[in-house]
Every structure is written in structure tokens, then in C-alpha cells.
Specification:
three-stranded antiparallel β-sheet; mainly alpha
């Protein structure tokens, strides 16, 4: 016989005089206890009926905690009996502890933000921190367990974001981030997979069509040929051009390029966002831009970073400052040229992909050139592509 029940442990009062509440497992004349982390005054506990009195201010919440803990134990008992395994009160408790790690939503979020910071993925870390902060503002705290994030919680959070005027795609990013952290919680046994709310709550619907971000080859040529009496306008255009000629390389990767990234006429670098190794042939126009900006007293190919920027935070702040100025000036150029969209360095990345696609280059090769990693199986397959295919694809940009 085995009994599982909630008790008010009157033998060791806490410093504040209250009595701790526990769940007792009794089997083979031995008892083991699970501390619920809550307590009560003796006068608020009915010792004859072994339950809280209605006078307790948090009666409903504590009873939910008791019910949930007892239900988890009974599930483990059923599992053990179904497996025809003998067990003691202690082994039952051990099995419960092994299956569920008592980590809160805040715990998992903070662990992941620290991991991203340690890996140097500061942009993703800041994005996750933003979601973390909005959740705290919404719920007042994140000292809750993932099992409490159910469909009702998600709907309330979505409504709250909409009332604050958050854009549709931004809401989608918030929920994809929360879903990713929930999946990590499942991997760490911080919540059971059957509690996963995103099977019914579809994040994919939180999406709106993104405005056009690519230009035709003729428009790209107009941008690169743009002339201005303002000498500060030339650098943004050259960065736009280098992005286009080098397979849509991201600005942060341009900023970190050094002579060591040029190997046998190719640009070889690890993409900052995905750590994927990119190898692309350097077109003559790209080589000329490197020669134009490279200085003997700088370790970098372009005048974005310098020896002064030593820490990751210094580098990140500098890159953010420069790209903001570059995109501001590109926007002005785009308006002067009458382009159908807001001109940014990201437009160069999209445009080169569109130009190659229209030239008949396969999507798989384009993904290889751009270093995408969203489709893992495709990326594994792409590892077999030879350099000649990529070399030929890049010629379509000229």
C-alpha cells in the first residue's frame, strides 16, 4: 500500500512562526516528503480534515499546487506499476525529481541569454532579452513554471501586445522566441511535452506580407553609378555595392573582414549570425573596393572597426552607429533616384539573390552563397556543391 497526501508539518515551524506545507509519500512504513515551498499559520489549517481552511488568503493557489504535485506523483506510480517495477517511497521521489526539473520561466530565459552572450551572439541575446522584458511587464514576474504558459496565457499575451500597438511581424517574433525557449524547457525536463501549448496555438498565423526588399539589376546599376558632391555619400554606395558583389554579405561580416579572409582570390569567412563558413569568388569590382579602403595601419579591410574597438560591446556599438549612418544616407539616395522602396544595405542582399534567381541559378546554390541555415537538411545537402557551380552563379551579378 502507498499513500500520497498533503500535510502541514507542525514539527519544525519556520522562523516566522508558520508551518511548512509538504506532500508526504508513505510506503512500506517509510515516509518521504516533498517541500512545496509554501507555509501557513496553524489556525489556517484543518488538521482533522488535513486541508486548508477557507480563511487562508491564498487558498485557491496553494490547493492548485498541492493537486498538481499529487497528480504528478500518482502518474509516476501508475508508470512504475505498468512497468511492473518495485519501488520505495525514496525511489518514487527520485523518479519524480529526474523527470521534472523545477526551473521557472525566468530561470530558462536567463540561462539562454547568458549562453548567447558567452557565444558572442549579442544581437540574438538582445532580441531574447526584449521578449523577456515584455513578458515581465505583461505578467509582473516570471517566477512561474512553463506548465502555466497555456493557450489562455498566450492569448492574453497576444491581446496585450496588440493593445500596445506592436506590429504583427514583431508579435510573431515574440511568440517564436517564446516557443523556442519552451522547447528548450522540454529538453531540460523543466516541463512535460504534453503541456506544449503551441500545437493548438499556431504561431505561423502571426505574419503579414513583408514589403518588397529587392531591386532589379538596372536599379542596382543606377545606385552604384550614383554621383554626388557630398563625399560622405560615396562610402554608403560602396558598401551597398560590396554587399551585392559578395553574395549579400551582412554588414557585421563586412566590418570584421581582414586580409586573412582573402584566400586565393576568394572571400572566405564565417557568417556571424550562423557561424557557417562562406567561400565565394571575389569579383573584380569587389577587389577594387577593397583596394580603395584598405589601409596599412588598420587590421580591417574597411574603415568601420579599428584597434580601439577591443571588446564585443565596443564593436557592436560601433557597427550599430556606422550602419545607422550608412542606411540613413542610402535612404536619401534612394529617394533622389525615385526607387520604389527604402534603400538599405539589406536591399543589396535581397537584390543579389533576386538577380541570380531570375538568371536561372537554383535556389539551393543561392542559399549556399548567402549562408542561410534555416533549412538544415538543405544545408547538409549543399555541402556537396563544388566551387565551380558557385563561381558560375556569381558571374550573373555582373
Amino acid at each position: 500500500m502507498i499513500t500520497v497526501e498533503a500535510i502541514c508539518y507542525k514539527y519544525k515551524p519556520l522562523k516566522n512562526g508558520e508551518l511548512p506545507l509538504k506532500v508526504r509519500i508513505f510506503k512500506d512504513r517509510k515516509s518521504r516528503y516533498i517541500n512545496l515551498g509554501v507555509s501557513t499559520k496553524a489556525e489556517d489549517w484543518d488538521f482533522s480534515k488535513n486541508r486548508l481552511k477557507d480563511s487562508h488568503p491564498n487558498k485557491d493557489e496553494i490547493e492548485k499546487l498541492i493537486t498538481r504535485t499529487i497528480s504528478m506523483l500518482k502518474e509516476k506510480i501508475i508508470e512504475l506499476k505498468a512497468e511492473q517495477q518495485d519501488f520505495t517511497a525514496q525511489s518514487l521521489l527520485d523518479r519524480l525529481n529526474a523527470s521534472t526539473t523545477r526551473k521557472t520561466v525566468g530561470d530558462i530565459f536567463n540561462e539562454q541569454m547568458q549562453r548567447l552572450a558567452d557565444e558572442g551572439r549579442r544581437k540574438y541575446m538582445l532580441s531574447l532579452r526584449y521578449v523577456y522584458n515584455t513578458l515581465i511587464t505583461f505578467n509582473k514576474h516570471l517566477d512561474i513554471y512553463f506548465s502555466e504558459i497555456d493557450i489562455t496565457f498566450l492569448r492574453r499575451y497576444e491581446t496585450w501586445l496588440r493593445k500596445r500597438g506592436v506590429a504583427e511581424n514583431t508579435i510573431g517574433i515574440h511568440f517564436r522566441s517564446l516557443r523556442a525557449v519552451y522547447n528548450i524547457a522540454i529538453e531540460q525536463n523543466a516541463v512535460k511535452a504534453e503541456n506544449y501549448p503551441f500545437r493548438k496555438y499556431k504561431v505561423s498565423r502571426l505574419h503579414e506580407e513583408t514589403a518588397k526588399r529587392s531591386l532589379s539589376k538596372s536599379d542596382v546599376e543606377r545606385i552604384i553609378a550614383y554621383k554626388s558632391t557630398n563625399r560622405y555619400m560615396r562610402f554608403p554606395i560602396d558598401i551597398f555595392a560590396f554587399t551585392y558583389y559578395c553574395g549579400g554579405i551582412n554588414f557585421i561580416d563586412i566590418a570584421n573582414l581582414t586580409p586573412a579572409n582573402i584566400i586565393e582570390g576568394k572571400l572566405v569567412y564565417k557568417r556571424h549570425k550562423t557561424s557557417k563558413l562562406i567561400k565565394i569568388p571575389l569579383q573584380p569590382q569587389a577587389v577594387e573596393l577593397i583596394k580603395k579602403y584598405q589601409r596599412n595601419n588598420s587590421p580591417y579591410l574597411f574603415p568601420i572597426l579599428s584597434d580601439f574597438h577591443e571588446t564585443e560591446i565596443q564593436k557592436s556599438n560601433r557597427i550599430h552607429k556606422v550602419i545607422s549612418k550608412v542606411n540613413k544616407r542610402l535612404k536619401e539616395i534612394g529617394e533622389e533616384l525615385g526607387l520604389p522602396l527604402t534603400l538599405t544595405t539589406y536591399v543589396a542582399r535581397h537584390s543579389q539573390a533576386t538577380v541570380m534567381k531570375k538568371a536561372g541559378v537554383s535556389t539551393a546554390v543561392i542559399r549556399e552563397i548567402m549562408g542561410h541555415s534555416s533549412e538544415r537538411v538543405t544545408q547538409i545537402y549543399l555541402d556537396s556543391f563544388d566551387n565551380e557551380q558557385i563561381d558560375n552563379a556569381m558571374k550573373n551579378l555582373l
